[in-house]
């Protein structure tokens, strides 16, 4: 094999040629997509099918354009070219069009399939039917109080083991992002599958790597025209290896549970495990009970849970560790509610300041500057009169809304008690809660596909924050400085290299 080439089934393939073909394909594909634009005004330049603007948006200009469009068009739709396709951004009244819109008009599934190329990463069964989302939404959310002791036990053990701090109270340098990812992967899988698998190094490594690799592979596949997707999917996606890796662990567990169910009949109900896998097995019908299909869905929930929660937590942690004056305020609240309720879901529910801190971090840093991406399945007219053709992509301008001074006072300022102050002066705790999705707080999306796992995510991240302020002292290695975020298009990734300092809290 020569440098710059790849041996594919015995044939020496020139990588430069492959990349050129892919790029040409992408250009043609993009040109075709340009025809799917609406009659809304364009931000940026239309030159080269909008590619110049699309490239600029990948390198930091996106948020300025979103904010300028928001200001200029006052909530009415405008459009911007992306690397993959043109996107129509809405705000104001038009958010309701998406929130109320049906799947046969504004499709969440088709948008996700286009964005992360699910057909070629997860495969058709998940791409075509995400019935497990209903299990997350119903059974998982309903059982959060009952599962809280397990979840908190895992938070406590995972931090102790992952941080491994000296007993003498000295500070220790911790790579924040990767450490939180390990903790979150363990904690989520404690709920999904229980012990001992949630602590298995190889199993959790597959889960953590899968999310990053599949997102990358999905993005690359999404850039190329349909006829190239199977080829690129085959050679660029690590998904099949991860799926096989998960199968090694999960298929024997699933088959054993099925066997016991068949043998024990009614008695199985008393004996069966109480975890997400079992809730899913109980809900599955017909072919859905196939072990391979259930395995894919377990990967699916790991995909939905791990990276999103890690980014959200790391953003909030950086605000806290760079602004340590906020720690005593949180500590005071956590000590009081834990003294009253113990480490329970009731205690977490009562942590109004912790909730506000996380919500403000999500408002300011978020994990991205747009929300509620949908593919338009039939020509439609938005409530501002914008005509949108079939095949177009629409999304909500989260950045514009979250930074609108008419909605949030001093919107560019990180004000951790922005929401708790209002609750403490008598306003509705539910209205201002981190988990409450609305047209003003778009972090969780909205409408019928609003994040199904947000109650668990919020509980987990609040409990992690509370645990840290109760048992550790923290600061950034570069004291008082919040590490820079990395923006990639509309995605806001917290710094992955930053070092935080932890020590056991002096009592
Ligand atoms: C902080 C962490 C999380 C964030 C920021 C987040 C964000 C989101 C967003 C923005 C959506 C799309 C909503 C829309 O377009 O309207 C979504 C959907 C979804 N999320 Fe989350 N999520 C998080 C954690 C989780 C967790 C822990 C789970 C599962 C255990 C989960 C499961 C899901 C599922 C199943 C959907 C699809 C819902 C549907 O198809 O109806 N998420 N999430």
Automatic annotation (TrEMBL):
Top-level taxonomic group: Eukaryota
Alphabetic keyword roster: Heme, Iron, Metal-binding, Monooxygenase, Oxidoreductase
UniProt-annotated binding residues for heme: 451
Gene3D superfamilies tied to this protein: Cytochrome P450
PROSITE patterns assigned: CYTOCHROME_P450
Molecular function via GO: heme binding; iron ion binding; monooxygenase activity; oxidoreductase activity, acting on paired donors, with incorporation or reduction of molecular oxygen
Keyword Oxidoreductase annotated: yes
CC cofactor: heme
Family recorded in the similarity comment: Belongs to the cytochrome P450 family.
Identification of the protein by name: Cytochrome P450
Species of the source: Calocera cornea HHB12733
